[in-house]
Specification:
The complex is a heterodimer of chains A (144) and B (145). By secondary structure, chain A is α+β, with helices and mostly antiparallel strands. Helices cover 39% and strands 20% of the residues of chain A. A 5-stranded mixed β-sheet of chain A has the order 1-5-4-2-3, with helices on one face. In chain A, α3 links the parallel β2 and β3. The N and C termini of chain A lie far apart (76 Å). By secondary structure, chain B is an all-alpha fold. A two-stranded antiparallel sheet of chain B has the order 1-2. In chain B, α1 crosses α3 and α4 runs antiparallel to α5. Chain B starts with a strand and ends with a helix. The chains are: A alpha+beta (144), B mainly alpha (145). At the A-B interface, α1 and α4 of A face α1, β2, α5 and α6 of B.
């Protein structure tokens, strides 16, 4: 009897550790090796001059609409930043190429369209702003 | 098939029942009592696996007694990922009962242990493992246009 209770406790302990670890990874931006750049044509929408949030969503993702609202709001504050939302089910080719494993996944592009970092899971406002601040400047502050 | 949106707190509440049953089965052991408990849990999973979490007894309890006391949900989710999670629960419950009946004690503990693990993560940490696996599964099985 005692050993069975210990088994239960062990399972719950391992599960708790796993959950805390998983939560710690949610919404954290990780810098990505610079591969090719994503053009506006590929994305189907115009990129931002300084940075772009490319959000991959699916219809059955509960956290995607609030995340889209948050990122659109942040993007609206700076005219050089743009938020693009892509339905992963429609653009399976892009999802495969960019290795989108779950939704929401947000790719942060710099001014050249190169992926700077990726966020897996819904970020908090602070996490999104920190990720945006980490995008290096590729152009100038002038738009002409 | 129409995409029904459900309150995400419903399956999470149901997971508490699933957790209680599987923990009880683990403590009682791989005997007639434990097998009976997992068999009851198996039956509880069936409507969820076929129709979705909204069709389960746990879902009914949530709708009738808990939901009226809560504010409307901030976000809703499609029923498909939680339904897939119920299907996984059903599969593991069947394996647990089968292991018990075949006197395969280790199997009983492993499969019941997995139900405990998944329902604990869902009820306490709001982490639905089946839902996470669902998108991966869809990605692997759907062909590009």
């Amino acid at each position: 009897m005692v050993e069975r209770v210990l088994i239960v406790v062990a399972i719950l302990a391992v599960a708790s550790v796993a959950a805390v670890w998983w939560r710690g990874r949610q919404g954290v931006a990780r810098e990505v090796e610079r591969a090719g750049a994503l053009s506006s044509t590929t994305l189907g929408a115009k990129r931002g001059y300084h940075a772009t949030f490319v959000q991959f969503s699916t219809p059955m993702c509960a956290k995607c609409p609030p995340t889209a609202q948050l990122l659109s709001r942040i993007a609206a504050e700076d005219r050089r930043v743009v938020h693009i939302e892509i339905d992963a089910a429609e653009r399976l080719d892009l999802a495969r190429e960019l290795e989108i494993m779950r939704t929401p996944t947000i790719l942060l592009l710099d001014g050249d369209g190169v992926v700077v970092s990726r966020i897996s899971g819904a970020p908090s406002e602070q996490q999104a702003r920190d990720a945006l601040a980490a995008v290096p400047r590729t152009g100038t502050d002038y738009s002409i | 098939m129409k995409d029904i949106q459900i309150d995400p707190r419903g399956p999470r509440f149901g997971a508490f029942f699933q957790l209680a049953f599987s923990v009880a089965a683990l403590i009682v052991g791989a005997n007639a009592g434990g097998i009976a408990i997992m068999a009851v849990l198996l039956v509880l999973f069936i409507p969820g696996a076929i129709i979705g979490p909204q069709a389960t007894l746990q879902g009914w309890v949530f709708r009738t007694f808990v939901r009226p006391r809560l504010d409307p949900p901030a976000e809703t989710e499609s029923f498909r990922p939680p339904r897939f999670a119920q299907q996984m629960g059903l599969a593991f419950s069947i394996l647990a009962v089968a292991s018990g009946l075949a006197s395969f004690e280790t199997g009983f503990f492993i499969f019941t242990g997995f139900v405990t693990f998944a329902s604990f993560l869902n009820s306490v940490f709001d982490l639905c493992l089946g839902c996470e696996i669902y998108l991966l599964f869809k990605r692997v099985t759907t062909r590009t246009a």
